[in-house]
Amino acid sequence: MQYDNNATRTRRNILVRIARLFMEGRLETSADRIPLEMRPKNGSSYRCCIYKDRVIIKHRIMAALGFGVEEEVDELETLASYSRKSMRRENAAQGESLLLMDEACSACVKSKYFITNACRGCMARPCTLNCPKKAIVIGDKGQALIDSSKCVNCGICMKVCPYHAIIRIPVPCEEACPTGAIIKDGEGRAQIDFDKCIYCGKCMRECPFGAIVERSQMIDVLKAIKNGKKVVAIVAPASAAQFVAQYDQVTSALRALGFTCVVEVAKGAVTTAKLEAEELRERLEEGAPFMTTSCCPSYVLAVEKHVPGLMKFVSHTPSPMHFTAKVVKRDNPDAVVVFIGPCVAKRKEAQKDASVDYVLTSEELASMLAAAGLDVAEFDADTAIDHADPDGRRFPIIGGVTDAVIAQTKHPEDIKGVVLDGLNRKSLKLLKIYATKGMQGNFLEAMACEGGCVNGPCTTESVAPARNRIMKMAPKTILSTVSS
């Protein structure tokens, strides 16, 4: 689904409103008015009525304040109460980073094939002849019908129909999930099986009802800034590429927002590339057939949970976020370190990393800037920023990690890179083949998001413009790799 739609606009609208109320000191007194303002009495609604819309907006606000929607044991508890709790808590909002709102879920029917009125009841009837389960019958009016008790959803009928009269009705969140982590409860509503979930965020991005949201840490970051703490933003290149501006203008805007200083995560990416190049050389010398990257947390979780046989081939080198945050903490032990990127899984990774205090998404950053009335394009370039190496800045586009690792080795001809561009059910099967039978190359770059981090679930820009900005930040021809 396109990154720009009414579901994402609603999510961003709420984030902007909450950030603005916080900055104006009116969060506790005005939070309860947000649902009423967004769905006024005589206005239109997306569901049965404005009152259900308001309840769902309330739950979205709870998530934006850092609370899980399942924590609302008393429906009469006000948003003012939740705002007060968020203002008083001392530590980051805890719990699962992805939340599914029951009220917002439309309880989509199981994915199935359906014969439309375009069916002409033709004499050829390839749908009936080619159905392996004889699930297609001819009705009284000569049109084909599908017996759902026999249908196995193979899709052959749709492929052979000359009128394209047969369509497939999907369930978007289930279709997007590469690991089968979306399940149904007794009432048909979606639930997340966190034993299978890899926090890629694809379900959140694809749900047309916006029923899946994140547990935000935006209020915690805003409080740290307001309280005068030394708050350091470590910014992923993919997030900087979300703005129609130069990287140095983005860092200037962050300083105006209240961050003490800004550090490029691309600096940590160079360290990751250097250590992965060394690790690859050591592994190959020891006889290992190949090694895979480790910088994408969703990919690593996918291997841990679904392809454990491949785990021994995953690099032990930490991610760029870790190395960048570690250096900041070493030089500034009292600093509050905030990672900013377009990734849901980074929240999960940060929970295990003592050097990272909070995680903001690109959407949250854009919302904070909008709430403060700051236009990134109007800022002068930040002269205090210590620029990272171009190889590190290219990490968020597919092939960029391989590029950086090759640049860090003395014998680039020895590296035969293979790129896994996005995780889905097909690519997971491919990973299982790699685990048992090996692969053509000796270095696998795996990214959960097609195109790389610039296509993360929390981006505010489409892939092509973001990728072009990355290439302007780090001009160099991407080395060719084998695409899986």
| Oligomer status | single chain
State the share of residues found in helices, binned by percent.
25-40%
- β-strand amount: 5-15%
- The number of distinct helices, counting runs of at least 4 residues, comes to 21
Uncertain residue ranges: 477-484
Largest sheet properties = 4 strands, parallel
| Radius of gyration of CA atoms, rounded to a whole number | 24 Å
Shape: globular
Straight-line distance between termini: 23 Å
Strand order, main sheet: write it out: 10-9-12-13
Q: In terms of structural class, how would the helical and strand content be classed?
A: alpha/beta
Total E-strand runs: 16
How many domains would you count in the coordinates?
3
What is the residue-averaged pLDDT? 91
What does this structure look like?
This protein has 484 residues and is an alpha/beta fold. It has helices at residues 6-23, 27-30, 34-38, 50-64, 79-88, 126-130, 156-160, 172-176, 202-206, 218-226, 237-240, 247-257, 265-285, 297-306, 320-331, 345-350, 362-371, 390-393, 400-407, 425-437, 463-473, and strands at residues 98-100, 112-115, 136-138, 144-146, 166-169, 182-184, 190-192, 212-214, 231-235, 261-264, 291-292, 336-341, 358-361, 417-421, 443-447, 482-483. It has a 4-stranded parallel beta sheet, sandwiched between helices. A 4-stranded parallel beta sheet has the order 11-15-14-16. Helix 13 packs across helix 15 (320-331). The longest helix is centred in the middle third of the chain and has 21 residues, at 265-285. The model is unreliable at 477-484 (pLDDT under 50).
